[in-house]
């Protein structure tokens, strides 16, 4: 450990700590900076994190200094403040100050640090500025404004060190230096939007988010990306019931500060055409809308114990929903006629950074719940000649042709979110909420339970899905009496056999990797038949 | 060309056969190398160079033996670079050394490499010096053929390879980490320090970068002893120095004189004063990056590290530019500010933006579009650039700018009063 004094405050930090981080700790806020990023190598080029170390003649940058015992450091004295102000002014002299049309405005390092450390009168006229190319499309997701760039090189280092794809470079020198790609090269890796996140100014912006919303109008809700089994921690930025973008949230045990582009675009499904907004029932061969009250009556009428031939849930459902589904399905269909999704659905190509080949956010939970997946052929065989109701929660099993062909004798009840093959083949369709519309737990591929919070309302008649399942259970004679989310999660903990019933109500920030006995049997049903 | 009896470095300058191995050997060349390899220890060589008081001639004046001592003793692989990326405006001495006497530099390099236990040396030659690359390469080939380079040199068991590397013509590659990066194949721009090259340089291994003139002095020091070298010059500025002299003086060129020589004497005896009709106004003594001195100031100096520092400038590279009365200081500084703006690598913000800003302000002064506040603004911009960057290029722009402004302010003011009408059309009025 090294003991040092920063702005008169004594702190002790582990040997080898960067002075930048020690100052952050001592001050309670980071030093001014553009180029420093804890997950990238040190560039030392923005020159903003200057501090005075007693005994050294010149100011020094904290990001490239390692703490030493007995170091005495000043970060706020006049000498440092003057230098920071001057350097900040240098960052701004060739900046176009086009904040009114810049997407970064409101979350911009230049704006914020000017307010904190700058506040000088400009001494440069607009006509004196160096002009560079604006609004250059450099990849499928990213657009570059070279005038706004402060050349911190974060994006270049990201592409060299994290994705190791090296699309970006700094071309030319002096004040003609600019970020760019080589001729014929695009910034088209699946992590390109992280460069937008780490760009401290509006030089790299997202083509998708561009001109959609001023950032100060957005509200942020912490959530979990449902795009694959990695479970990247995300922030859902939304306003007026609409999701505008996803941003990664740091979780060093899962995704660090990054997320992939395909995950980031997944929010588009929420507001996409083809979303189910109301219940549908089959009348005269076609599907017709149905009021919620009628839909509920229809649903409960079709789901009587013993009347269900097969029940299937997709691991895109939340942990709570899968637990409730298992309980409901056992009651209605019996042990052998239930399955956790169609084997092979939701598999793709993964990479070595974050994206998992398993594109379901909750497949890990299936093993905990002893919900086996069913191969399409086996599912078709089970349905062939069956009578009664087939209950499908989520997924799209009817997209498999052999399953579609085997549906002749059954009534299909589909609870889902999209107009797909299964909805089209169903006799009753009930709309469900999607992931940002509900407070839900997800078990990622590490078996880590993480919580996403409800950001926006579900469209139309879609309800809180877990309440609907509890309603269905009650109607089937299993009255769980779950008043709210805490009770629901205690119930889930019991079903998983967790020692601490409240552990899911007190999830650590990094999520919880519980000690679940494989294939937890679940508790005995309550209520009589 | 050289002062009588002072030809440690310049003995073969101006001679048609000076670059040939046979000439060099006939005049005592490679004797020092034979002596060193015949039983001296590496540390003994470092000690001799330390005692000699030899200081780096590239500009910083850091004691050479001390620099060599920074190489970790247990290093498995050490690299050595001879810095011949001579690009400082006003400086052209390394060119003479490699042109007229490449073997002296090569011998000095081999001894230096032996001292720091390097087995691979590069001579990094500025891109524009195309013919020097050929000349140095021919000399290196001669040295290989004579057994001074390669495996088991002179049967000593010591091996050294030498590569002549041609730069691509960037001033910033004369900065040692920029030079190393350039050879590595990455963008030629300085790296943040620490780590310093002596600990982690080329390919992450300990690396020493020395100026041509520095290593060229090593054979003489080994032949004649540290005391003899120390006896030349002053206590803190040992030995001789090459001065590259330009400007309207009677004698221009490269001169070797002992450090400590009074400028007045040098000016009178070697340079012969200004040409007819001209009078000395100012002197940039150590290359364009050092503060300018007025004629009065320089006349009171002796040519050594201490005296020039005391006068507020630096000995630098010894690129001496003599400025006559007839010269316009604003025009001159515009040339220099264009140079630093053009050559800034652009990674550090204060330098990238500051050099361009200075260039633009000086440019509008020259066009008669300046306002009185511009002079204070120049000073302010300089303060925001000095000492705040990875390498000294930023300071190198600031030092001439601030000293020109400080010592010749009236010439800058005249530019404004002469032509700038209130509310000059090109600029919206301030404070409105």
Supply database-style keywords.
heterodimer; A: 529 residues; alpha+beta; 7-stranded mixed sheet; 5-stranded mixed sheet; B: 432 residues; alpha/beta; 4-stranded parallel sheet; 12% strand; globular; disordered C terminus
Q: What does this protein look like?
A:
The complex is a heterodimer of chains A (529) and B (432). Chain A is of the alpha+beta class and 529 residues long. Helix content of chain A is 24%, strand content 19%. Chain A contains 14 helices and 22 strands. In chain A, helix 2 (78-93) runs antiparallel to helix 3 and helix 8 (319-333) crosses helix 14. The mean pLDDT of chain A is 94. With 432 residues, chain B is an alpha/beta fold. A five-stranded mixed sheet of chain B has the order 6-5-11-8-9. Chain B starts with 20 loop residues before the first helix and ends in a 13-residue tail after the last helix. Classes of the chains: A alpha+beta (529), B alpha/beta (432). At the A-B interface, helix 2 of A face helix 15, helix 16 and helix 17 of B.
Topology record:
The complex is a heterodimer of chains A (529) and B (432).
Chain A: E1 2-6, E2 9-13, H1 19-27, E3 50-53, E4 60-61, E5 72-74, H2 78-93, H3 109-118, E6 136-137, E7 142-144, H4 154-161, E8 168-171, E9 178-181, H5 193-198, E10 204-206, E11 219-224, E12 233-239, E13 242-248, H6 261-264, E14 279-283, E15 286-290, H7 292-302, E16 308-313, H8 319-333, E17 338-339, H9 363-368, H10 376-383, E18 388-393, H11 401-405, E19 410-416, H12 421-425, E20 428-431, E21 440-443, E22 449-452, H13 465-475, H14 485-496
Parallel strand pairs in A: 1-5, 16-17, 16-18, 18-19, 19-20
Antiparallel strand pairs in A: 1-2, 3-4, 3-5, 6-7, 7-10, 8-9, 11-12, 12-13, 14-15, 14-20, 21-22
Chain B: H1 21-26, H2 31-37, H3 42-52, H4 64-69, E1 79-84, H5 93-100, H6 102-116, E2 120-125, H7 130-145, E3 161-166, H8 176-184, E4 207-211, H9 212-216, H10 218-224, H11 226-231, E5 240-246, E6 253-258, E7 261-262, H12 263-270, E8 280-284, E9 293-294, H13 295-299, E10 302-303, H14 305-310, E11 319-324, H15 329-343, H16 349-366, H17 373-383, H18 393-407, H19 409-419
Parallel strand pairs in B: 1-2, 1-4, 2-3, 5-11
Antiparallel strand pairs in B: 5-6, 7-10, 8-9, 8-11
């Amino acid at each position: 450990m090294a003991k040092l004094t920063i702005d008169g405050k004594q702190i002790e930090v582990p040997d080898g700590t960067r002075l930048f981080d020690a100052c952050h700790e001592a001050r309670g806020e980071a030093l001014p900076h553009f180029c420093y990023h804890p997950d990238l190598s040190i560039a030392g080029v923005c020159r903003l994190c200057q501090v005075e170390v007693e005994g050294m003649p010149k100011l020094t940058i904290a990001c490239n200094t390692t703490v030493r015992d007995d170091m005495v450091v000043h970060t706020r004295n006049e000498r440092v403040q003057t230098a920071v102000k001057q350097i900040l002014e240098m960052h701004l002299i060739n900046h176009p100050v086009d904040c009114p049309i810049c997407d970064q405005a409101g979350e911009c390092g230049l704006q914020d640090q000017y307010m904190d450390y700058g506040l000088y009168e400009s001494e440069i006229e607009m006509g004196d500025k160096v002009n560079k190319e604006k609004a250059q499309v450099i990849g499928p997701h990213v657009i570059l404004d070279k005038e706004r760039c402060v050349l911190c090189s974060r994006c270049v280092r990201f592409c060299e060190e994290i994705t190791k794809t090296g699309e970006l470079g700094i071309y030319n020198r002096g004040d003609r230096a600019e970020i760019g790609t080589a001729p014929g090269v695009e910034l088209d890796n699946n992590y390109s939007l992280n460069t937008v996140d780490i760009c401290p100014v509006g030089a790299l912006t997202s083509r998708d988010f561009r001109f959609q919303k001023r950032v100060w109008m957005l509200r942020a809700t912490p959530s979990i990306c449902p795009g694959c089994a990695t479970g990247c921690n995300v922030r859902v930025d939304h306003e007026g019931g609409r999701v505008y973008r996803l941003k990664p949230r740091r979780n060093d045990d899962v995704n660090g500060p990054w997320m992939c582009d395909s995950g980031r675009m997944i929010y588009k499904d929420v507001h996409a055409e083809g979303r189910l907004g109301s219940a549908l029932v089959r009348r005269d061969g076609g599907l017709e809308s149905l009021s919620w009250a009628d839909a509920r009556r229809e649903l409960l009428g079709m789901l009587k114990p013993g009347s269900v031939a097969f029940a299937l849930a997709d691991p895109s459902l939340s942990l709570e929903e899968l637990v409730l589904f298992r309980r409901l399905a056992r009651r209605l269909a019996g042990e052998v006629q239930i399955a956790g999704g169609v084997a092979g659905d939701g598999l793709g190509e993964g990479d070595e950074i974050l994206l998992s080949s398993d594109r379901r956010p909750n497949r890990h939970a299936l093993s905990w719940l002893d919900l086996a997946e069913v191969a399409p052929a086996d599912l078709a065989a089970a349905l062939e000649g069956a009578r009664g109701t087939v209950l499908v929660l989520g997924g799209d099993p009817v997209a498999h042709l052999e399953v579609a062909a085997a549906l002749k004798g059954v009534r299909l009840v589909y609870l889902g979110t999209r107009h797909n093959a299964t909805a089209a083949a169903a006799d009753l369709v009930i709309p469900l909420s999607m992931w940002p519309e509900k407070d839900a737990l997800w078990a990622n591929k590490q078996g880590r339970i993480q919580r996403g919070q409800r950001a926006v309302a579900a469209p139309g008649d879609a309800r809180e899905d877990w309440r609907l399942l509890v309603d269905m259970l009650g109607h089937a004679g299993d009255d769980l009496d779950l008043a709210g989310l805490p009770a629901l999660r205690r119930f889930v903990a019991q079903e998983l056999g967790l020692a601490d019933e409240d552990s899911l109500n007190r999830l650590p920030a990094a999520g919880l990797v519980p000690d679940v006995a494989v294939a937890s049997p679940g508790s005995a049903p309550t209520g009589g038949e | 060309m050289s002062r009588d009896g002072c030809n440690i470095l310049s003995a073969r300058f101006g001679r048609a056969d000076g670059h040939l191995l046979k000439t060099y050997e006939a005049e005592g060349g490679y004797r020092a190398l034979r002596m060193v390899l015949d039983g001296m220890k590496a540390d003994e060589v470092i000690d001799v160079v330390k005692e000699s008081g030899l200081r780096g001639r590239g500009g910083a004046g850091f004691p050479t033996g001390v620099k060599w001592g920074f190489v970790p003793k247990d290093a498995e692989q050490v690299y050595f670079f001879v810095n011949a990326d001579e690009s400082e405006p006003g400086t052209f001495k390394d060119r003479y050394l490699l042109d007229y006497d490449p073997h002296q530099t090569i011998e000095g390099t081999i001894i230096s490499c032996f001292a720091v236990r390097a087995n691979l040396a590069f001579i990094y030659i500025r891109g524009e010096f195309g013919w020097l690359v050929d000349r140095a390469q021919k000399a290196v080939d001669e040295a290989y053929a004579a057994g001074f380079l390669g495996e088991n040199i002179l049967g000593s068991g010591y091996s050294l390879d030498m590569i002549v590397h041609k730069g691509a013509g960037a001033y910033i590659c004369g900065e040692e980490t920029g030079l190393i990066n350039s050879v590595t194949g990455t963008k030629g721009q300085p790296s943040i320090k620490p780590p310093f090259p002596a600990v982690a340089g080329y390919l992450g291994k300990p690396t020493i970068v020395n100026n041509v003139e520095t290593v060229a002095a090593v054979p003489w020091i080994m032949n004649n002893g540290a005391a003899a070298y120390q006896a030349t010059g002053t206590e803190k500025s040992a030995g001789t120095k090459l001065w590259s002299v330009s400007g309207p003086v009677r004698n221009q060129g490269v001169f070797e004189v002992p450090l400590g020589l009074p400028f007045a004497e040098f000016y009178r005896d070697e340079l012969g004063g200004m040409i007819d009709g001209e009078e000395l106004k100012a002197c940039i003594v150590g290359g364009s990056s050092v503060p300018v001195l007025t004629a009065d100031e320089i006349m009171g100096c002796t040519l050594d590290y201490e005296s020039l520092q005391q006068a507020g400038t630096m000995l630098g590279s010894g690129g001496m530019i003599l400025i006559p009365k007839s010269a316009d200081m604003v025009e001159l500084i515009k040339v220099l500010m264009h140079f630093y703006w053009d050559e800034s690598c652009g990674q550090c913000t204060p330098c990238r933006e500051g050099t361009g800003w200075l260039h633009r302000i000086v440019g509008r002064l020259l066009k008669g579009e300046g306002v009185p506040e511009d002079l204070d603004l120049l000073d302010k911009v300089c303060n925001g650039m000095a000492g705040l960057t990875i390498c000294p290029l930023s300071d190198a722009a600031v030092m001439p700018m601030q000293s020109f402004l400080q010592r010749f302010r009236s010439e800058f003011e005249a530019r404004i009063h002469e032509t700038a009408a209130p509310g000059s059309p090109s600029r919206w009025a301030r404070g409105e």
